[in-house]
Design a protein that fits this description.
Elements (H helix, E strand, L loop, with lengths): L1 H38 L12 H23 L7 H30 L4 E2 L4 E2 L1 H25 L3
Helix pairs in contact: 1-2, 1-4, 2-3, 3-4
Keywords: Membrane, Transmembrane, Transmembrane helix
Main location: membrane
Membrane topology: Multi-pass membrane protein
Length: 152
């Protein structure tokens, strides 16, 4: 029973940490997607890839924020050294970034074409695509981080 409660607590903390990291990632994506196209006009469509640098930079911000939340609040230290743990985290995050960018491109190019009006805020297709990509990848992230990285 205790193990089940601890596991539920860990899942809850992972969701909170992921939510906060998503806020950092989405917020920084919004900023980057507004200001980078002013400096790099091809940012909106870079050889058919929409907002590549905004995505990469915002995902990096979210990953680093999530790493610190994960080691402070969510997972116990695993059997790996801190350096190896960080390396594994970054490798998994790199793969997750590729997946997230791929999902974003599919969502933005083919699925989300219109704004969603939430009365107090309107979500653009790029923001909806970013949120959907984050949600999909976060499920994979928890499993991999729990089983491989923080497997103490």
């Amino acid at each position: 029973m205790r193990a089940l409660l601890l596991r539920q607590k860990q899942v809850f903390l992972f969701i909170v940490a992921g939510g906060l990291s998503a806020v950092v990632e989405i917020g920084s994506f919004k900023l980057f997607s507004i200001y980078l196209p002013q400096m790099l006009p091809q940012e909106q469509n870079f050889y058919g890839i929409h907002y590549p640098f905004s995505n990469i930079l915002s995902t990096t911000c979210g990953i680093l924020f999530n790493y610190f939340l994960s080691i402070w609040f969510v997972f116990e230290r695993g059997k790996h050294s801190k350096k190896r743990e960080f390396l594994y985290f970054m490798v998994v995050s790199f793969i997750s970034t590729i997946l997230s960018l791929s999902f974003f491109q599919v969502f933005y190019s083919y699925i989300f074409k219109d704004n969603i009006n939430l009365i107090f805020y309107t979500l653009s297709p790029e923001m909806i695509s970013k949120i959907a990509a984050i949600l999909l990848v976060s499920i994979l992230n928890y499993s991999v981080k729990k089983k491989i990285i923080f497997n103490g």
